[in-house]
Amino acid sequence: MIDIQALTGLASSAFVGLIGAWAGVWFSLKRYRNEKWWEKKTSAYESIIEALHKIKRLRTHHLEAAETYREVPEETARRLRLESNLALEEIQRSIDIGALRVSTEAVQRLKQFQSDLVKENGARDWYSHLEIGYEAAESCIKDLISIAKKDLKID
Question: Where would you find the membrane-spanning parts of this chain (predicted)?
């Protein structure tokens, strides 16, 4: 004869086991997705900061040359301009993609950077033009590092 109490206990154990397995898989998948999303956001911030560094590097080379009364070699200047232009495209792409990759605060800071960079065009001379761009990039890098740390919950 079938022992109903044993059968009930077996069914109950199987049910609890299935629920436990399902919950374990669900939490593991959720954690995996969160980790992957964190990695993508980290990569996005790194790309943006690298782009800002390239923009700053162009101005740094020209500022150092101006301060030592020398010219930046044409090939170096051409390479730096190309890097800077590609970096500006990366900044614009990050703004366009927006909060999908980075925080809204980061997007707003990048828009402010673009506005600050436009001020280069109103500079009274070449050196001032370079200083404005350098300071805009340097300030944006510092701010974005803070924003990224907060967004990624680092420190």
Answer: 6-29
